[in-house]
Amino acid sequence: MSKGLRVPHTLALLFMIMALALLATWVLPQGSFETQPNAQGRQMVVPGSYSVHEERVWLSPLVLFTAVPRSLAFAQDIIFFLLIVGGAIAVLRATGVIDASLGWLLRKIGHSPATLIVLGTAALAAGSATLGVSTEYIPFAVVLISLCVAMRLDAMTAMGIMICGYSVGFGIAWTNPYTVMVAQGIAELPPTSGWEYRLALFLPFVAVTAHHVWAYSRRVQADPAASLVADLKDPRHSAMAEYPALTGRHLLILGLTALAVIAMVYGIRVHRWYLTELGALWLALALVAGFIGRLSADDLAKRFANGAAELAVVALLVGFARSIALILEEGQVLHTIVHGASIPLGMVGSELSAVGMLLMQSLLNFFIPSGSGQAFATMPIMVPLADVVGIERQVAVLAFTLGDGLSNAIIPTNVVLMAILGMAGIPYDRWFRFVWPLMLKLLALGAAALVVAVWLGYS
């Protein structure tokens, strides 16, 4: 990176975006749509009801400072989950199970980084496409980094597998309950309908993503100085000289960890578990693993506390990212942005309208990073718009999932993205340099998929 160009710390970058959001509340018209509850009691936008407020709300510059602690309070569930996960990972590492498992994996697939990249990307994408997994991947960031570094790759390769894999999964969303099923409910379509076409998109999207990560990893293997994180010297980005043998005690801890992951998937799917239950599961795993690993009570507590402390910056990143949307909401310009983005779509043909919906949803994901929240804010507008321009409602849903999902890999207001990068010790500007060419490729592929969907009458 040029010495003359100094990119600010991620926290500083987010604070600058907060300041721009505050400026937008002073400059843009303030307005809102009318909302009404649906059958489930969720408030939905009424199409065509946008109006500008007669009386303007002026946010004080002090909101830049009060928004952060309030956002930390709003995001307390994910923050506390991250702290517990950080402590649990530290305890697992202290038992030696992580390093021993990495050594075993290296002996099995260490000769083929391409296998790790393809299978890892596909597995993560499948989990997100079906169950809507995102936050649950965060604990595995450090483990994946260790594996990649040991295979003469780098931390950025690991992030490419994890973040891009989960984003592609959200984009194609076969049965994702947080995005496609919510959007289809608003569009009055059968739940999970049209899954065959979305399933057909899985292979090309995963192939493009895996190829991008693989091509980067090849450059790093040929020249380690080509790594985008070569100069960071982060201890998390270094490999061990020697890995311990995998013992029976390690296998027992691994078995319990696998049971915890199965319980996590089952709980999410059947009992609608979320971060409180998942945090409790990881806390229990840490205690049992520490006991089996023969850690004393004091050592277990110290390891857990140190692991949690390492994620303090990550918790701040979550709070700062959430603050941006909070300022836009309280400044009453969020609906203005949604309304303004939707106007051009009614002026072009059906194919261009579908592509425009993709670009609009990608843009709005910056302001409304919650998938279900974006669905409730935008789909009531997109559905009647699709009817007017002559495209199937299923196409509008696909444009939503692709726009919302793919852009998760790049928008700094996405708390999952910022949390994973924080755990990995990778600044956002380095990640942006890695991911923006892939985003262009995926958006072009998404646009092509939507045009084909229009031609096919996808419903």
In terms of topology, how is this protein built?
Layout lengths: L9 H18 L3 E2 L2 E3 L5 E3 L5 E2 L10 H12 L1 H19 L2 H13 L3 H19 L9 H10 L4 H18 L7 H7 L8 H6 L1 H21 L25 H23 L4 H18 L4 H13 L2 H19 L3 H9 L7 H18 L3 H19 L3 H14 L8 H10 L3 H29 L3
Antiparallel strand pairs: 1-4, 2-3
- Uncertain segments: 1-5
Beta-sheet strand percentage?
Answer: under 5%
Structurally, the number of domains stands at: 1
The main sheet orders its strands as 1-4
Give the termini distance in whole angstroms.
48 Å
How helical, in percent, are the residues?
Answer: 55-70%
Indicate the structural class.
mainly alpha
The gyration radius over C-alpha positions equals 22 Å
Biggest beta-sheet profile = 2 strands, antiparallel
String of helices and strands:
HEEEEHHHHHHHHHHHHHHHHHHH
Number of strands: 4
Mean pLDDT metric:
85
Total helical elements: 20
Shape: globular
Short description:
By secondary structure, this protein is mainly α. It has helices at residues 10-27, 63-74, 76-94, 97-109, 113-131, 141-150, 155-172, 180-186, 195-200, 202-222, 248-270, 275-292, 297-309, 312-330, 334-342, 350-367, 371-389, 393-406, 415-424, 428-456; strands spanning 31-32, 35-37, 43-45, 51-52.
Explain the overall architecture.
- This protein has 459 residues and is an all-alpha fold.
- The protein has one domain.
- The strands form two sheets. A two-stranded antiparallel ribbon has the order 1-4. The chain has a two-stranded antiparallel ribbon with strand order 2-3.
- β2 and β3 form a beta hairpin.
- α2 packs across α14 and α15 runs antiparallel to α16.
- The relative contact order is 0.17.
